[in-house]
Amino acid sequence: MTELVPYDDRDGQIWVDGSLIPWREAKLHVLSHALHYASCVFEGERVYSGKIYKLNEHSARLCESAAELGFEIPYTIKDINAATKAVVSAENIDDGYVRPIAWRGSEQMGVSAQETQIHLAIAAWSWPAYFGESARQNGIKLETSRWRRPDPKTAPVKAKAAGLYMICTLSKHEAEAKGCHDALMLDWRGQVAEATGANIFIVQEGVIHTPTPDCFLDGITRRTVMGLARNRGYEVVERVIYPDDLKMSEEVFLTGTAAEVTPVGQIDDMIFKVGPITRQLIEDYDDEVRKK
Predict the structure, then answer these.
(1) Tens-place pLDDT, residues 161-219
(2) Do 195 and 247 form a contact (C-beta atoms < 8 A)?
(3) Architecture in CATH of 13-126
(4) Distance between CA atoms of 227 and 285, rounded to whole angstroms?
(5) Furthest-apart CA pair in the chain: how many Å?
(6) Which CATH superfamily does the domain covering 135-289 fall into?
(7) Is the CA virtual torsion 160, 157, 142, 261 positive or negative?
(8) What pLDDT is recorded for position 133?
(9) Residues acting as catalytic residues
């Protein structure tokens, strides 16, 4: 088994509040508001051949997520883009992952947070395929989670906010304990929503279907793959999808910055093939992110 290297004990540099600092010095106080009340937003970005894919869209969404949580990041999108490129260059990342994160600091403790300082940090590291290369050939296994995506009236579901991922961690841990790779999450109505960190698509009679993103992120990769599919002439339908709809599907796949395009081979007791549409979109997405 490969020995894990803790993320707080690595060589390199991380951009924090305006400058690059040594990796091990990128710390926050235990009484930071974000740690206690999840007043924190983040992004996940991929680096391909040294280039950050759709950087501007990710930086813009980071600022939009912060606004959803009621705070403003003290840097422009242009500033964030420049800082992200500086981190990738400093770390000499060819193929990897970038994690920008913004949070409320330690000036105020309690539910109120008007007096807290807003911090921004950006880290990058080399990172292989999220589910492993074999997943692209054989598909991954999902288990339906007992946790549900919340009603938009109960949480800022359009934000990529740290607190919304608590149930994702719980769901993924329970799935992994049963030999699965990830979990399928329904929403509060019992409709299919997404996986723990990726959007879901199903294929029925040559038509691609995906849930309407009304209580979860309309992913950047999701939109990209929908465009690639339509360019290929496939019909793509956004609609309500119920668990029973999965039984009538020939192919299922996930999309996300980390997951890229990942086929699903099994959900609970349902088996799916890694079919031609999924394979085509894997190829098209690979070409898209690495084009000159």
Answers:
(1) 999 999 999 999 999 999 999 999 999 999 999 999 999 999 999 999 999 999 999 99
(2) no
(3) 2-Layer Sandwich (3.30)
(4) 10
(5) 57
(6) D-amino Acid Aminotransferase, subunit A, domain 2 (3.20.10.10)
(7) negative
(8) 74
(9) 160
